Structure to design on (670 residues):
């Protein structure tokens, strides 16, 4: 039996599974809370729940993580130097040191200007102790990478730094997008390296002697060495793993996958057994990149979404808070305080105050970290000192410090990631209901009792109402994804909003109703899906699959993926030769630019070079027994019937894909 260990470090939980790789049978599974300040702790805690004897038999480890995505969004990473060639890049893309020099190519791969190596050399010699990595990007390097390659050679001779070139990460046009991707990649190198080193140290503790694979944003795998070179490709790793897991668990090739975690619900679509990919490259932090990743719609609703009751009105917000049940498990002293709060009700919540600026009586705060020179007040620093030991509400902290509760700017400290809010969440609703009990149920019950009082509702009535609101929100977010997929936008006018509301809420006492039915089945992934998805699917007349072990679907996807590497080879007839039956052609690819006397020779040589390139890339990424798939697209232009319906070849695009299972696991054919 070949055992694989799959690990997914999500925003709230770290999931781990042991899988028989020959049969995809799940042997064991575990969950632990994700430790955001040190992911290795959460990984270690999840592995502690396994039989150590089984862990020693593991022959492959695969990890999916939100680390790269979170680091980019939060602006974390190392210092980066940038050399841009032939054109200055968009300065909204930040770099610590940068220079623009002459060089670059045109669309035909012809040099626009000689490469200024002397200026580049002076810049490189000025970088020691100023940057930790280097990004090199040249104008239209995807048509001819010679300038980037020359600069990389020079940088490797002069500096002991990681160097990444734009053409190595993308073969698509778009200088600014390629530059942004290169800078992101360079900035992420030490962060991913630290994660991989931490993972390896945990593996060593548990005597796991196996290669380590990392899930990419398209759901495929690469080994740890390649992940350190190309960490930007791990963006959207977690959601992509959930889609591969959904396919593994159900066997469906075409479906909607909804992964509800603690922080978000990620919605993607499987087409022909693979995640639907973002055509233009993933959007990260509001900027377009050239990262190939699953096209995921992420909604800020999860098991840890904050529930707010303001002025008798219920709100489900995207802010992630620690559920009361989890907090009371970690700090039992919260229970009697919550019980006391549940027996009183303060109605002082002005309608005009934004829900994000309200702190409720049942909400507490705990310190996460210090930030040197953080822009906070002296009162805030006193608040941080007192919540470093145990959670306090604002009123408790104010009483202890003899300050007004509004003297603390908790929103600012939350924004900086210095404090964690504790409050009522959908996870608490399930605990109070009794349908899902993992932590301290009493804490959830006290929180629900307090909020029910504020809404002037009975306890059971509030539970049903809150659960319905979660179901309606999930249905609305699913429809937004489908609108985006089929129409290109999810922006709705008032009529559209009303129709969606009628479809999700059910029949109304009105002149008409609205119903929507889904043509694709929905696969639910995540721990709380059984509590919400059946009712949601019923409202949308959708076929729903909640496979066994769906709560660890991400980790299953992490360990059942394949190594996939792809290259695009562009073949264009030389200007003036298009009318010839077998014209002179130029081949453009990331591995170089080549001239051929005939189109047929260009196709033959381009195919051979492309196959060799992706095969070597797949082997380097950890693949075994690589299969090659070639798709040839001849793009022709019809000149019309008056010319005997002749067609002129404009270009040929070869898409060459190498696919293989990780080399530490292979099944012998019978």
């Amino acid at each position: 039996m070949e055992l694989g260990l799959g690990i997914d470090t999500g925003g709230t939980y770290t999931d781990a599974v042991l899988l028989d790789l020959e049969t995809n049978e799940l042997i064991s599974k575990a969950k632990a809370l994700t430790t955001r300040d040190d992911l290795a702790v959460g990984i270690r805690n999840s592995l502690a729940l396994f039989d150590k004897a089984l862990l020693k038999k593991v022959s492959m480890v695969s990890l999916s993580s939100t680390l790269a995505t979170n680091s980019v969004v939060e602006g974390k990473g190392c210092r980066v130097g940038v050399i841009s060639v032939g054109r200055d890049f968009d300065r909204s893309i930040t770099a610590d040191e940068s220079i623009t020099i002459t060089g670059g190519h045109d669309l035909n791969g012809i040099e626009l200007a000689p490469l200024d190596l002397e200026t580049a050399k002076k810049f490189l010699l000025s970088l020691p102790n100023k940057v930790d990595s280097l990004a090199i990007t040249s104008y239209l390097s995807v048509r001819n990478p010679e300038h980037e390659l020359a600069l990389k050679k020079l940088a490797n001779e002069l500096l002991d730094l990681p160097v990444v070139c734009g053409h190595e990460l993308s073969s698509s046009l778009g200088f600014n997008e390629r530059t942004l991707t290169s800078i992101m990649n360079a900035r992420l190198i030490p962060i991913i390296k630290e994660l991989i080193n931490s993972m390896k140290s945990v593996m060593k503790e548990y005597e796991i002697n196996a290669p380590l694979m990392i899930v990419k944003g398209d759901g495929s795998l690469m080994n740890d060495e390649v992940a350190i070179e190309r960490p930007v490709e791990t963006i959207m790793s977690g959601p992509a793993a959930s889609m591969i897991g959904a396919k593994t668990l159900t066997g469906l090739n075409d479906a909607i996958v909804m992964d509800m975690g603690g922080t978000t619900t990620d919605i993607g679509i499987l087409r022909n057994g693979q995640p639907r990919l973002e055509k233009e490259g993933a959007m990260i932090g509001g900027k377009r990149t050239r990262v190939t990743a699953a096209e995921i719609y992420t909604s800020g609703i999860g098991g840890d979404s904050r529930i707010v009751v303001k002025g008798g009105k219920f709100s489900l917000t995207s802010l992630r808070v620690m559920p009361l049940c989890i907090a009371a498990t970690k700090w039992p002293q919260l229970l009697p305080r919550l019980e006391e709060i549940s027996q009183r009700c303060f109605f002082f919540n002005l309608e005009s105050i934004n829900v994000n600026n309200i702190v409720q009586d049942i909400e507490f705060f705990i310190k996460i970290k210090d930030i040197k020179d953080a822009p906070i007040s002296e009162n805030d620093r006193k608040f941080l000192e007192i919540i470093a030991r145990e959670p306090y509400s604002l009123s408790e902290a104010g009483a202890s410090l003899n300050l007004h509760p509004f003297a603390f700017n908790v929103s600012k400290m939350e924004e900086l990631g210095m404090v964690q809010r504790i409050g009522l969440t959908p996870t608490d609703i399930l605990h109070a209901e009794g349908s899902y009990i993992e932590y301290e149920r009493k804490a959830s019950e006290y929180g629900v009792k307090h909020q029910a009082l504020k809404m002037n509702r009975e306890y059971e009535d509030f539970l049903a109402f809150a659960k319905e609101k979660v179901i309606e929100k999930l249905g609305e977010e699913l429809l937004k994804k489908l609108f985006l997929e089929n129409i290109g936008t999810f922006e709705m006018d008032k009529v559209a909003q009303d129709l969606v509301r009628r479809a999700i809420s059910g029949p109304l006492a009105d002149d008409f109703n609205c119903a929507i039915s889904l043509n694709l089945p929905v696969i639910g992934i995540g721990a709380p899906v059984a509590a919400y998805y059946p009712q949601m699917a019923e409202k949308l007349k959708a076929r729903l699959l909640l496979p066994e072990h769906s709560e660890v679907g991400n980790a299953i996807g992490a360990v059942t993926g394949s190594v996939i590497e792809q290259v695009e080879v562009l073949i264009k007839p030389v200007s003036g030769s298009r009318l010839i039956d077998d014209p002179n052609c130029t081949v453009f690819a990331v591995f170089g630019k080549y001239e051929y006397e005939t189109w047929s020779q260009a196709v033959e040589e381009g195919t051979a070079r492309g196959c060799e390139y992706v095969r070597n890339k797949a082997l380097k990424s950890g693949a075994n027994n690589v299969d090659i798939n070639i798709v040839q697209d001849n793009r022709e232009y019809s000149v019309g019937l008056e010319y005997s319906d002749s067609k002129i070849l404009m270009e040929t695009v070869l898409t060459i894909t190498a696919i293989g299972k990780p080399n530490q696991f292979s099944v012998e054919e019978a």
Notes: Residues 666-670 have pLDDT under 50 and may be disordered. The chain is about 35% helix and 25% strand. The first strand starts at residue 3 and ends at 9. Residues 175-205 form the longest helix (31 residues).
